[in-house]
Structures are given as C-alpha cells and as structure tokens.
Amino acid sequence: MKLIGSLTSPYVRKARIVLAEKHVGYTFELDVPWNDDSQVPDYNPLGKVPVLIMDDGTSVFDSRVIVEYLDSVNPVSRLIPDGNRRRIAVKRWEALADGICDAAAAIFLERKRSKTQQSGQWISRQQKKVEGGLEAAARELGDRKWCDGNAYSLADIALGCALGYLAFRFPEIKWRENFPNLAELSDRLEKRPAFMETAPQD
C-alpha cells in the first residue's frame, strides 16, 4: 500500500499513526495538494490528502474512511471498538477532533490571503468552533486517562493530531493553560513512537 500526503496535515498524520499502531507496511509519498504540480487530483477528485492507494491500484480517500479500513485489515491493536455504543463514542470523538482541525485549517488558509481579502468575521467564526471544540473535549475527557476510558483508541489519535496541529500552527492559542487535562493527554500521546515519528513539519 501507498499513502499520499503532506507533513503538515493532521488528517495525514492520523492515518500514518494508525498505520504504525496497526503495524501495516506501506510507502509514504510526499505530495502537497496546494502545489501546481500536485498529483493528488489524479487519485482523489476532491484534491485532498490523505489518499491510500491499495495494492490493486484502488484509491481510498478521506482520513475517516482510511483509518476505518486500516483498523479492519489487521486484528492487532483494535482502535475502533466492536460494540456499537463504544464504536459510536469513538467515532464521535474523531468527528469532534476533525472538526477542530477543519476550523483551524480554515483560519490558516484565510490568513494566507492578502489583508484586504481576509474576512475577520469568517476567522472569528472559525475561532469560536475551535474554542467550542476544545471546551467540549476537555469537559468530556474529564479526569480519564484516555478518551474512551481506560483504553487507547482512535479517539485519542484523532484528538492528539488536532492538538498537535494547534500547537504547530497556532501557538497563540493557550489550550495547554486553559485545559490541563488536554495538555496531559497530549504529552502522553506525543511520547508514543507513532506520534514522535509523525510530528508535523514544514
């Protein structure tokens, strides 16, 4: 298998971490979809990363679809529980974490536009989503070690990638000070080999 993606995307990082945690062999092809010579649209008509290329050439895109497929490939270290209630809880965490990333990425892209083209109202709206997402994550995590209780799961991977992206792109957001339990979870996750090997970089 081959994974196509960038070194900054939290969605690509999520897929890479799942591949590592599941011990699935693959090759990583670096491709930034914003570049004029990007080949990403050849594999994903939406022009987004990550894209997983199967051995038969079939492309799988959207990080949520990719990680769900990968969790079924190898029974070792299941990251999405089998029970419907716990499964939905973990996928809900993933949706929350991805939503934080969506809003943060929207801010990042808006700020790349010229000052005269930027919309302060749009940025403010996305900032509220990030703040709301962090507040919800901290409240629901509480004093638990992991998002799903006592077991490490996709929920932790997704939230860890979101927090890592904020630390990377938005150091001005003081989520560590405001939400100590999220900081503790992030510190615990960033010590795992899969997280250390996929730290975002320009």
From TrEMBL:
<feature type="domain" description="GST C-terminal">
    <location>
        <begin position="83"/>
        <end position="202"/>
    </location>
</feature>
<dbReference type="InterPro" id="IPR050983">
    <property type="entry name" value="GST_Omega/HSP26"/>
</dbReference>
<dbReference type="Pfam" id="PF13410">
    <property type="entry name" value="GST_C_2"/>
</dbReference>
<dbReference type="InterPro" id="IPR036282">
    <property type="entry name" value="Glutathione-S-Trfase_C_sf"/>
</dbReference>
<dbReference type="InterPro" id="IPR040079">
    <property type="entry name" value="Glutathione_S-Trfase"/>
</dbReference>
<keyword id="KW-0808">Transferase</keyword>
<protein>
    <submittedName>
        <fullName>Glutathione S-transferase</fullName>
    </submittedName>
</protein>
<dbReference type="GO" id="GO:0005737">
    <property type="term" value="C:cytoplasm"/>
</dbReference>
<dbReference type="InterPro" id="IPR010987">
    <property type="entry name" value="Glutathione-S-Trfase_C-like"/>
</dbReference>
<feature type="domain" description="GST N-terminal">
    <location>
        <begin position="1"/>
        <end position="78"/>
    </location>
</feature>
<dbReference type="InterPro" id="IPR036249">
    <property type="entry name" value="Thioredoxin-like_sf"/>
</dbReference>
<dbReference type="InterPro" id="IPR004045">
    <property type="entry name" value="Glutathione_S-Trfase_N"/>
</dbReference>
<dbReference type="Pfam" id="PF13409">
    <property type="entry name" value="GST_N_2"/>
</dbReference>
<dbReference type="GO" id="GO:0016740">
    <property type="term" value="F:transferase activity"/>
</dbReference>
